[in-house]
Each structure stands twice: as C-alpha cells, then as structure tokens.
Amino acid sequence: MTCEKLHFRGLKRLLRGDESGQALVELALSLVMILIPLLIGSAEFARAAYAYIEVSNAARAAVAYGAQTHATALDSAGMLTAARNDYAFDPTKLTLLNSSYTCSCSDTGATVSCTDATACSGAHIELTLTVRTTAIFDPGFYEPFLNKTFTVNGIAVQKVLQ
Fold first, then answer.
1. d(CA 76, CA 97)
2. Domain boundaries, the chain
3. Cross-strand bridge partners of residue 150
4. Interval 35-75: pLDDT, tens
C-alpha cells in the first residue's frame, strides 16, 4: 500500500508539473537581460572616451605643426592636415574649429604684436598658439532617448619661444 501511495504522489507531481529549478532559470534569464545591455553600454562608453582622446590628440598634432614658425601658425590648412593624419577614426568627420595665436613678452607677460621683433626689449617674444578641433562621434548602438551622433571637442595650447 505504501508503494501505491508513492506511485500516486509521483503521478500527481508529474501531472501538476515540477517547479524545482524554475527560480534558477528565471534568474539566469534575468541576468542575461541585464548584463548584456550593461556590457554593451560600457563598451560604447569606452568608445566615446577613446574618441575624445583621439580628438584631443589631433588638436595636439595640429598645435605642434602650427607652433613651428610664424608661417605655420597661420597655416590652418596645414594644421588641419596634421590633425587628420593623427586622427584614428574617419578623418573626414574631423574639423578645425579655429586656431588663434597671441604674442607676449617672456619677462612681463605683456601682449605685443607678433610682427614687431623689438617689442620686448631684452626679452623674448612668446607665441601662444591655441587650436580647437571637433569631430562627429557615431555610436554603434542607438538608444531611443539619445542623439544618433555626438560632437566631441578637443583643445590644445602651446607656448613657443621665438
């Protein structure tokens, strides 16, 4: 009789459905649905940070080119070429916002004309070149509430003793 009761209980459980392990399956599915978007989001964040670093490095390359002489400080096309050669992503998306330079005396810091070599008596003329670059960053995955593209800016400033 005991055997019949056990058999009947097993049959009842089989017909009703065994629920052991259901929580484990739900947890596994939930973790997958949470961890995959988290992993993709962190990869996109890393790509955006890398794009910012690349735009800043491109600005540094442009300012290094422009700081060679007074002539290269005025050469915006040459600075743009130097920046695009350094940029790792699509170079056509990188633009040179502006480049400006100022001249000052090395001893007093007073702003002087860059063409007047005698403006700083007994001191050197320091040329300070500022270059601003910008690029369009296109993320690989789009979110409905975010823009499809982002603008990334870079700036570099360099002093050159003339």
1. 10
2. 21-161
3. 137
4. 998 898 899 899 999 999 999 999 999 999 998 887 888 89
